[in-house]
Write a structure and sequence with these properties.
Length: 432
């Protein structure tokens, strides 16, 4: 139970057997705001951000920036938090760009990614963003056409290095058959197109995958990117982003969590030595910590509705699941949990935890030792801050949960719980 507790945000305490986060009583918040409920610990987010800042100051005294991946979880308040931290926000498409702009981010703080940017996406990027990461030649041609009557943001090219990190195949992005980016020859062709049209290329971006724990494969990507940078002929002012995706512990079996310093040190040392070897000026370095900024800060709280015994499994059936967290259904993501009350009592049985939706794949946790949990009790699943709410849906008429930021005994609503009226707000009556 102590190892499970270590997965929770840094302010988590057990008070009279009950879980508190940010000095807020989790059971009390569940009663007040309903379940499913998502909680974000501001201290945990601030601490993770400070770790990256300190490490970059120590290992890369040149120009550097930190980019928050909007796809992990983006709402107005989270975008405002990135602004206070001095971060850039990685936006994929007009929707995320709109959220960032609504939060007051300047163009210099908005960077736009995407493998198939629509005309609307590109128009929003040109209007609000400071940097567009171009994924392919067709996109580049559309940008040139759109930019004939306006000033364009900075242009980076997304490089496909031909290798990936060790992670699930669904989250590998750098291999030669990936849908992301351009290979070496395609990048050089894109450079020719840019120069022909008077469009300056200011940087390169690559990404080899998410949720990896060994930085070694990134060395190959860095080496190829720097060789490409040399051939392009970048001068003293250029930008390089080796992506992000550093892994975190989702389950007690994943502990200890790989140290962030190992990741930052590896990247910075390889770029320094690679640039020196090639006579390249050190770039403005961009890191994309992604989930490692917010995943551990988030906790999902559910209420057990039914305890069911089948031939060989005890099922805890809860009031949320794949509609608010599809990660287990998508790629077998593994989670842990604790009861919200009597949290540290030792396990007495092994259970599966599943949701209410009409899919056999609507399972969050399989074969986890727990104390006997009764119907109407609350459970808390840690490391729920990334790629859950952002991938949530209204499947089976599910209404997205309320999202709270907790700090110093106060809970602030980041997103209100959806209601039934929200489900048909966009609907029109038919002619039947």
């Amino acid at each position: 139970m102590e190892k499970r507790l270590a997965l929770f945000p840094i302010t988590t305490k057990i008070v009279a057997g009950k879980i508190t986060i940010g000095d807020c009583d989790v059971a009390g918040m569940a009663d007040r705001f309903g379940t499913p409920l998502y909680l974000y610990d501001q201290d945990d987010m601030d601490s993770a951000a400070q770790v990256y800042r300190s490490l970059l100051n120590a290992y890369w005294p040149e120009r550097w920036s930190i980019t928050y991946a909007g796809k992990a979880f983006l709402c107005t308040a989270i975008a405002e938090w990135t602004l206070k931290q001095g971060f850039m926000v990685d936006c994929t498409g007009a929707g995320e760009i709109g959220i960032a702009a609504n939060a007051g981010l300047s163009s210099e703080n908005i960077i736009v990614h995407g493998v198939n940017k629509s005309a609307e996406d590109l128009q929003a990027a040109i209007k609000y963003a400071g940097t567009i990461v171009v994924d392919n030649q067709s996109e580049l041609e559309r940008i040139i056409h759109l930019g004939k009557t306006t000033n364009l943001p900075k242009i980076w090219l997304r490089f496909q290095p031909g290798s990936s990190v060790a992670t699930h195949s669904y989250t590998q992005t750098g291999h030669s058959d990936s849908k992301f980016g351009m290979n070496y020859e395609q990048i050089l062709q894109a450079v020719k197109t840019c120069r022909k049209n008077g469009l300056p290329i200011e940087g390169l971006h690559f990404h080899q995958g998410s949720q990896f724990r060994d930085p070694e494969p990134i060395g190959d990507g860095i080496d190829r990117a720097l060789e490409l940078a040399k051939e392009i002929g970048f001068a003293s002012e250029w930008h390089l982003s080796p992506g992000g995706g550093w892994g975190i512990a989702y389950h007690e079996d994943d502990l200890p969590q790989p140290p962030t310093e190992q990741y930052v040190n590896f990247i910075t040392e390889n770029i320094k030595s690679g640039c020196k070897k090639r006579g390249l000026a050190l770039p403005h370095l961009h890191l994309e910590p992604g989930r490692s900024l917010v995943a551990k800060a988030g906790v999902a709280v559910y209420r057990v509705g039914t305890v069911k015994q089948t031939a060989s499994i005890t099922w805890l059936l809860i009031d949320g699941g794949m509609a608010d967290n599809p990660r287990h259904a998508l790629y077998g993501a593994r989670y842990s949990c604790l009861p919200v009350e009597r949290a540290m009592e030792p396990p007495t049985e092994t259970v599966n935890i599943a949701g209410p939706y009409c899919e056999s794949g609507d399972v969050l946790i399989e074969q986890i030792p727990m104390r006997t949990v009764a119907e109407n009790e609350l459970i808390a699943i840690p490391v729920s801050g990334a790629y859950q709410i952002s991938m949530s849906s209204n499947y089976n008429g599910a209404r997205r949960p309320a999202v709270l930021l907790v700090n110093n005994g106060k809970a602030h609503v980041l997103q209100e719980r959806e209601n039934i009226a929200d489900l048909f707000r966009r609907d029109q009556h038919g002619d039947t």
